[in-house]
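Worked Example 4.2. Read the sequence first, then its structure tokens.
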Amino acid sequence: MKIEQLVNSFSPHPAIKGGVSQTILGSQFPGKPEAFPELIPHTLDLGVDAKSIIFEIEARDKEKPVVLLAHGMGGCSGSGYIKRIAAKLGALGYGVFMINHRGSGAGIGLSSSLWNGGSSEDLSLMVDYILKKHLQLLVVGFSLSGNILIKYLGEGRSIPDGLLGALAVNPPIDLRVASHTLSTHRSCWLFNRYYMKLIGNQARALIKNFPDASDPRGNLSTIWNFDVSYTAPVGGYKDVDDYYDQCSGKNYLKNIATPTSILCAQDDPFVPPEVFRNQSCNVDIYQPKGGGHMGYISQQRTPHGDRRWMDYVVLEWIQNMCKREIFR
């Protein structure tokens, strides 16, 4: 089914209405993937004192492109949505690579700094690593990784021919707006607290293994304060505004040539629909009325037997991209 038709057909579960409820339920009740395939670990050097652990589901259908799944802030390759979608792709024969950004997941404590919304160089290394082993790749970036993916595609670097397409799911393409909303809006206090708890876990592991590194625990009260005290200075930016200006995906959309799509609900609690308006670009932007931030729990069951509409759209997008490549 075409993505436009899917977007127009989405109806949230009647008991889970509103962006906040969809976001909370989608995150806190991740579900259990079916018959998760065996994982092959890869260790990738990202630079001095920085390593990523990437897990691979080996492709059963060698004719299909492999898929890279990139997690959101505070998440990892073990996040519920990553595991669900990876299991569904594996069942269809796709090869899947589930990354862990520096300091995350199986790579916690293996890097002397944490990733941020501008970590496109790390993503580039991951893409190049996978394309040395496989001819064709599709990339799906969730939340903050979606922003990184857009930056990677539009910042002027050479994009490998083997990267066939990209999908960004609920990307906070205006980092200043997303950070301010998460840090100050009453409706988002629970999300801010949740993310800071996860970042705090990563920070403790970092300092345990790299006691001389900059300490991310300086101000874990809000996302904004964390970006002021840690993200901006450690990332080499002049200040937090410089970080937001240089790394917000909205500034790179117009330069993207790779076939790219964005999926983001209009009721996302911290990615307002206005940030996508008046964007002159070749990117397809899909904005269903409901779904929250990566919630998308639907009224009707999808063809996969559950109510995880986000999973369904991601898989449909991947299969549509494969058909597009065959008939190109």
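Now turn to a second chain, presented in exactly the same format:
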Amino acid sequence: MGVQKGHASRLTPAAPSLKSESVGLCFDCEHARVIRSDRGSIFYLCKLHATDPRFVKYPRLPVLSCPGYRKKEAAGS
């Protein structure tokens, strides 16, 4: 069996211990959603992808610059 090429090969799993340095801006962006696979991998999905073609569904980490970045507000603010 050969390696399958496709969408999954472009995904970049985050380190098991979530640190802002390894994830970048997605770590605290209100548009990011953490996806955990059954195998324990962690990915960051950009919700802006659904409405704006400038954004990829699963950005390569760490994201250091992003025009859609918006810091999450603290709960209870």
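Notes for the reader: The longest helix spans residues 20-23. The first strand starts at residue 32 and ends at 36.
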